[in-house]
Structure formats: structure tokens, C-alpha cells
Request: fold
Amino acid sequence: MNALTITLGTIGALLSLVCWAYFVRGVWRIVSAIRLGQPAPDRWRPFWPRFKQMLVEFLAHTRMVKFRTVGWAHWLVMIGFLLGAIVWFEAYIQTFDPAGHWPVIGGTAVYHFIDELLGLGTVIGITALIVIRQRNHPRVPERLSRFSGSKFLPAYFVEAVVLVEGLGMVLVKAGKIATYGHANGWTDFFTMRLAGLLPASPNMVSMFAFVKLMSGMIWLLIVGLNITWGVAWHRFSAFPNIYFKREADGGVALGAAKQMMSAGKPINMEDADPDNDTFGAGRIEDFSWKGWLDFTTCTECGRCQSQCPAWNTGKPLSPKLLIMSLRDHGSAKAPYLLAGGRKDMGGDEVGLVDGEGNVLDAKLDKIPASARAEAERPLVGDAEVNGIIDPDVLWSCTTCGACVEQCPVDIEHVDHIDDMRRHQVMIESSFPREAGGMLRGLENNGNPWNMNASARTQWMEGLPFEVRVVSDKIPDDVEYLFWVGCAGALEDRSKKTTRAVAELLHTAGVSFAILGSRETCTGDPARRLGAENVFQELAQANVE
Reply:
């Protein structure tokens, strides 16, 4: 040690205290905001299937490798960040003592080999990701880029820090070899050659270590101050977000639409209380804490956007931009909510009031003006009312789930869209005119096209055998009930498939029957539209 190394080490240690403090403060702000969400008790268990799926997605990168080059490059960066943290913390020692290393493990061949791979892997991986981002930059026609609308400053900052970290790992090791020797052709296969280009200088090693250390500290400081930088925070939030996914068996949130929940419990419309139950999401605080975690975790990678049929056909919906808007709104409104602020559906303050309902202006004045202004914005509304999500965006979604299938961190875009639609339909009575006709058809005749129920058996005409129709009770000799469905019974192209299935069952000697005119829509179109009441009515009718 000398005066320079002691100075560098002391500065590094003191600045670390400040940077870590801001980072921990950022973590606390995020956790506090997530806790504002509604309960979601079904997300915690069973532990082992969830934990196993998280490990599989993490180690095998099963979601990331759908974009193969990005997948392997990101895997290298991820491993470089997680295991490289061991090498990064070693810089605290090396700024004071250039020859220093971790006790016990630092001098072993295994540690040197891992250090070599981590440094090179991080540099190679992040360089590939930088090139990919630039090749897909929105400077090309806007709608063709999956990064359209993404925030580039956070991305460039994170990429720069990761690159410096990777180079720091390589240069510190090469500098130590140039200064002190002790290289091994197997464990130091790259750095021993790089060392030939460097002078023998202990101070140089300490300066390399200081730069490596400070790049990480600056990252902690800047990220701690910017809690909406999902491209940085997903390093931590992606793990719980994968663990807490909707399907405990590890499947993505596709298939059946999510149930409507209030205070963490499914709502039965017959017993629902409009004064106490939450119907969908009309405010950011109506989303569950898992929803808030989703918003925080978005990396703005744009995979969802690139696969969205609405976006690719010129519609205003981008699943990525929708999640980003909810994230930014939640973060901006959080100080108001954390202070106890709350508004009723009419927009009047009901949180910060006294026993007689008078607004406590003194408490409101302590809340930042930006947070109070954010609390005035409607969750769904056009530009005239300064809404967060434009109605055209909300109703452009086909709920196909391509976004959910592609998301590498298991964000549940469709569930959040469904929740906002539920509030719009059942509370605001606001939905597209075309949807009104479909709902009337479901309620009146049990199908989206409002066709007479008697038409459900017309597909059987001309079959060379009789299809049994259940009139009351299913006969004992019927093995299977063939659920035809609205499209299968009423849509001309689908009728051909229905006839083919019936002929196949008959040829195979399967005893089956249908409900015929007693069959009605499953209600799924109504649920995806947001009309949970219509869904439950139709579903119950089919069960009965």
C-alpha cells in the first residue's frame, strides 16, 4: 500500500456508503409502492413448483432463448452480474492492496478460471446486446422496431456500466499478472496475453480496481434515484415476478381469463357489494401487488410489442407502452397513496379527511404537487381528460396472449387489460358500440351473433346418422357430452369441423350426445370484454 492506494481505497469506501444508502432507499420506495396493491394470497404457494420453475427459467433462460442470439448474450451478462459480484466486491481489497485478493479462494486456480470466464463473457455478452439494440433502433421505420417508445437513457447507462464492469474484471486481472506474474496458461488464457501489453505498476492495478468499483457504485446511486428504470431493476425483481406468476404449475398466464378479484378473493356477482367490492381496476391502487410488481419489472425490451397483432396492424396498442404507462403513473402517484390519500369514484377526497368528512388540507399540502396532480388523472381516458391509458388502446387488445407468451419476465399484460375493461364495462358503462351488440346477443340468445338458439342443431342436417340431443337428464348410456360451442354450431366454416368431429366419433363407436338448443355460450367472450356479470350468468346456466 502507498499514499495513492490508501487514498483510492478510502474514497471508494466512503462513496460506497452514500451510494448504497441511495440504493437501499430506492429498494424501500419500490417495496412500499408494491405493498399499495390489492392482496393476492394465491401467489405464494405451492412453494416447490414455483421455485423450481423460477430456477428453470433463470438457469436455462427458457423464455429469453426464443430470441436465440439475445438469449445467449443475456445469459452471459446475467451470470457476469450475479457471479461477477464476487469479483466486484474484491475491488474493495484491491484498491488498498493491488496484490490483494479474497482469502482462501482468491489464489486458487478455480477462482482464477471463473474470473477469466466472467470477465470475457460479460464483455462479449454486453457487446452483442449493444449491437442488437443499435441494429433494432427506432431510427429505422418506427413501428418496425421493438424498442419504439423504450427509454434509451437508462438502457445506454446500464449497458455502459456493464461494459466497464466486464473490462474492469479483465484489466485488473491482466494488470496483476503484468505486475506480479504468476500466470497460468489454462486459467489465465486471455489475460496473460493482455498483460504483455501493460506495464508492471501496482498503482495501475489499484486504479483499474477503483474504476471497476466506482462504476458499480455509480450504478447503485443512479438506479436508486430512478425507481422506474425497469431495465436496471429487473435484475432483482424478475426472480420474484417469475415465482409469483399466476399459474403455479409454471405455465404462462394464458388460456382461461383471470377471475375478477376483490381484496384477494374471487367475486360472486350474486353476493357482490358495490360499496365494498372492487370491480376491476379503475385506479392504479385497484391492481394487486403482483400487478405493481409486473409494472416494476418491465425491461422495455419490446418483445411483446414486436409480436402484438394489434401493434403490427397499425392499432394504437403496444403492450410494452401500456405497462410502462402504468408503472410511471403508479410511481408518480405513490407518495399520495402512501400519505393516506384516496378518492372515491366521483373524484372526491375520502382518504385525508377528518371525522366529519372535511378534507385535511394541511396533510394534502405536505404531499408533492406532482403526486397530487397524478392522483387527479383517470386511469382510462383520452388526451382531453389527461388519462393514463387511452380507451382506443384498451379496446384494441384481442386478448390473444402473444405478449404474455413472449415476455421473458412473465408479465401478465392481458390480466391487467381485462381488469381495466371490467371497471369500464360494469362501473363506467363505457365500451365500444360493437361490443354492445355482442353482449346483447349473449344475454338474449346465448351467442355473440344474436342468432336463435334453434339454429344450434342445423349443423347436424344431412349427417348419415342421428346425433342424440339431451333434453333433460344425460342418459346413462351416453359416455361423452360433445360441447359444440357457438362457433362450431353457428359459424359456417366451423360447422365443417364440427361435422367432421361428429363423424369421427360415430365411426369410432363413441356414445355421445349434445345439448343442442339448451347449450349456451361459455361466457368467455363476455369475460374478456369485461362483462364479468354476463360471464358468470352464462357459465352458471351451462352448469345447471
About this structure: Residues 3-34 form the longest helix (32 residues). The mean pLDDT is 93.
